[in-house]
């Protein structure tokens, strides 16, 4: 009997442990596949990450970018695909994302852990639950193959073609004529982002060179990259010229044959009939010296004038500002501002200042103004104000303009001479 009881309790403990383990295992997990971690710069490595959940994902995971300096990271056209697997006798669903990563230079690169946010349906509650899965540290190395150590820049591809198109005849040009050169490199098995500048850094006396912005076209077919880089320049004849447009060579590493190859386009001759653009007769050094001396004298005169003129202008501006600050208009503007700000203390002092600027009747004794001020005081300090504070201030602002017009009219009347002047004829 005791043996049966012991067996029963042992069986129960095993079942409980199995249930706990099953519950612990019913969590999303991440699988990473990165078989080859070494590549020639430009050669694509395949990195796959698979997120598995015990139920389903109501929305896709938030994947990391994996971007790093000197690493080319690309997603193929169908970079994310659904998957499923049998785990512990249950069907799990998942998503697999595939990156193509290439080192752009030789060296060792380390992509640190980055989060993946996964939303899935909890198997017990059936509620959408979000968890965070961290990617492992990913290390890859860019290596320069033997025999390609001197390539600068290093370019790898399955195929590379270089061509030049010349529009116009560069050997029979005249001043004002133009020739357009189009340099185009087509690459297969790699991204055109690796292609360097194609047009040579070259000048020809008498020829002006105008370059367009480069055009880069990248394509992808089932994870294989290709594309082209196009550069265009216009050679404009400014005068007689004779020279050579150089050949262009591009050394590259063939990923198929595993050896260095060279793509080349030939140069061409350039000839422009006519005198050189710099042939404008003998320079008159005396005239040049006279112009230089005149320029020095003019600069000195302007400097002296400014030394005298600047203080004068500053004084005029200072006096004008002072007159404005002392004017009746400025004093009235202070009254208006205090009324807008509803600052009673500043309003009363501004009214005193404004009244001092008027030669006529004191505007502070205007009945309309006094009534408005009384209403403000009653609204603010009265025990039971009959007029709201805001309404009293609006009443004040409405009468200020009329008070000022009346005060200015009285001031003008005082300044005018009498209509019937009295003439003194002396003693009769």
Oligomer: single chain
What string gives the helices and strands in order? HEEEEEEEEEEEEEEEEEEEHHHHH
Mean pLDDT equals 84
Task: Write the CATH architecture name of the largest domain.
Answer: Sandwich
- Helix segment tally: 6
Termini Cα gap:
162 Å
| Low confidence ranges | 1-24
Q: What class, by secondary structure content?
A: alpha+beta
**What is the CATH class designation of the largest domain?**
Mainly Beta
Number of strands: 19
Question: Which radius of gyration do the C-alpha atoms yield?
Answer: 45 Å
Largest sheet: 5 strands, antiparallel
Estimated helix fraction? 25-40%
Q: How many structural domains in the coordinates?
A: 3
Mass-distribution shape: flat
CATH topology of the largest domain: Immunoglobulin-like
Strand % is: 25-35%
How would you sum up this structure, described in words?
- The chain has helices spanning 2-25, 285-325, 328-341, 344-355, 367-381, 389-415; strands at residues 29-33, 38-39, 45-53, 71-87, 90-103, 107-111, 115-121, 128-134, 138-142, 156-157, 159-167, 178-188, 207-211, 215-221, 224-237, 241-245, 248-254, 259-265, 268-272.
- The strands form six sheets. Strands 11, 12, 13, 14 and 15 form a five-stranded antiparallel sheet that branches. A four-stranded antiparallel sheet has the order 1-3-5-4, with no helix packed on it.
- It folds into three domains: 24-142, Immunoglobulin-like (Sandwich), CATH 2.60.40; 156-272; 328-415, no CATH class.
- The longest helix has 41 residues, at 285-325.
- The chain is 31% helix and 33% strand.
- Helix 3 (328-341) packs antiparallel against helix 4.
- The model is unreliable at 1-24 (pLDDT under 50).
- The termini are far apart.
- With 428 residues, the protein is an alpha+beta fold.
């Amino acid at each position: 009997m005791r043996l049966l009881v012991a067996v029963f309790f042992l069986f129960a403990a095993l079942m409980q442990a199995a249930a706990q383990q099953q519950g612990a295992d019913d969590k999303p997990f991440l699988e990473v596949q990165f078989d080859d971690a070494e590549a020639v710069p430009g050669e694509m490595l395949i990195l796959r990450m698979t997120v598995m959940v015990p139920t389903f994902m109501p929305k896709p995971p938030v994947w990391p970018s994996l971007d790093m300096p000197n690493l080319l990271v690309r997603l193929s056209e169908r970079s994310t695909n659904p998957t499923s697997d049998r785990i512990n006798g249950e069907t799990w669903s998942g998503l697999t994302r595939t990156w193509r990563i290439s080192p752009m230079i030789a060296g060792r690169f380390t992509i640190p852990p980055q989060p993946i946010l996964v939303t899935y349906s909890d198997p017990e509650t059936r509620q959408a639950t979000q968890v965070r899965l961290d990617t492992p540290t990913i290390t890859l190395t860019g290596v320069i193959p033997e025999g390609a150590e001197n390539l600068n820049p290093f370019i790898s591809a399955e195929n590379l073609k270089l061509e030049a198109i010349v529009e116009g005849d560069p050997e029979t040009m005249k001043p004002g004529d133009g020739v357009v050169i189009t340099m185009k490199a087509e690459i297969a098995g790699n991204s055109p982002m690796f292609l360097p500048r194609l047009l040579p850094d070259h000048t020809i006396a008498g020829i002006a060179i105008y370059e367009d912005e480069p055009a880069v076209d990248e394509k992808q077919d089932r994870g294989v990259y290709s594309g082209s880089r196009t550069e265009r320049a216009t050679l404009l004849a400014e005068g007689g010229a004779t020279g050579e447009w150089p050949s262009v060579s591009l050394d590259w590493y063939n990923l198929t044959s595993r050896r260095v190859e060279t793509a080349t386009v030939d140069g061409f001759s350039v000839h422009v009939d006519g005198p050189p653009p710099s042939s404008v007769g003998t320079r008159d050094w005396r005239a040049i010296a006279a112009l230089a001396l005149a320029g020095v004298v003019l600069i000195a005169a302007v400097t002296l004038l400014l030394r005298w003129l600047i203080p004068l202008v500053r004084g005029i501006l200072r006096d004008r500002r002072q007159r404005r600050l002392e004017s009746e208009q400025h004093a009235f503007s202070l009254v208006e501002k205090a009324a807008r700000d509803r600052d009673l203390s500043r309003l009363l002092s501004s009214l005193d200042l404004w009244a001092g600027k008027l030669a006529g009747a004191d505007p502070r004794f205007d009945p309309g103004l006094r009534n408005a001020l009384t209403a403000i005081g009653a609204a603010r300090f009265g025990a039971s104000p009959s007029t709201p504070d805001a309404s009293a201030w609006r009443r004040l602002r409405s009468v200020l303009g009329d008070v000022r017009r009346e005060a200015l009219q009285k001031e003008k009347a005082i300044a005018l001479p009498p209509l019937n002047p009295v003439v003194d004829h002396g003693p009769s």
